Amino acid sequence: MMKELNTKKQDLKSASEEYKEKRNALNAEASTLAAKRNDLNKSTKELINEAQEYKKLRDENNEQVKENKAKRDEINAKANEVFAKVDALRAASNLTGPSIKDIRKEIDRLEFTQQTEVLTPAKEKDLVSKITELQKQYVVKKDQLESNTELKNLLDEAQAIRDEASEFHNVLSEYAQKAQEYHDKMISTFKEADKMRAESDAAHKQFVEFQEKADEQHKLFISAQKEIRDIDKEVRKMRKGETDGKKVASMEDVRKDAAELFEKFKSGEKLTTENLMTLQKSGML
Fold first, then answer.
1. What pTM was computed for the model?
2. In the Cβ-directed half-sphere of 99, how many Cα atoms lie within 13 Å?
3. Segment 137-165 mean pLDDT
4. In 10 A of CB 58, how many CB atoms?
5. For 93-120, where are the alpha helices, taking DSSP H only?
6. How many helices (H) and strands (E) does the chain have?
7. Please, are residues 165 and 79 in contact by the beta-carbon 8 Å criterion?
8. Count of CB atoms within 10 A of residue 156's CB?
9. Could you tell me which residues belong to the region Disordered (predicted)?
10. pLDDT value at position 30?
């Protein structure tokens, strides 16, 4: 029985050490994954903050676009009123062809297209050609009107107002371009954050899997350790029983010897000191 218990104990020790090594290896891998997940979460948070900053800048620039557009439209409204007077005086003076106001509006529209849209070289060349032709028409029309002092004064006034409106238009175009740039950066950064968050989620999933496996190995380790302690207790009990049995057997031998010595003592034989100690140990003296 003792041999079987010792054999089982050795087997449990080997298994326990194997469980411990597997548990430690799995915990180490889980720790690595946790660190990776935490780094990814930190980077994700930083990217989201960066994207939010781009959003803030985009909105600020869009607000400037809104304000400058309102100012431009207000000034253009004043210019249109003056151009209406120009057109009325032009009609009264029998001047034919498109009005200088319409020519100017078309020039502004085409220039805005050139500034804000991405064009192929061929389309941009065609657009520049149209603008140049309209500018020539504008100069001719202006020369026609300048011969009339009243028309000239109205034209100068309208042009001055239009120039002021163009300044606001140029400013809002700059803000609009910046707003678009910040918007594009915001979208790109949010996408990058989403990608990093997905990597973090995957790392966390792996972390949980390794942690659960490590916990399983730890439970097996604890169970094996408990069995070893139980075996040790059983062995101690068995050894104690053997010792007690030996003590009983030894006492029986002493009493047997003492009985023989006591008989000799009663018959008058001389006993040695050792014989007397045996009798005393047995309780017969």
1. 0.56
2. 19
3. 82
4. 20
5. 100-116
6. 5, 0
7. yes
8. 14
9. 1-23, 52-74
10. 96
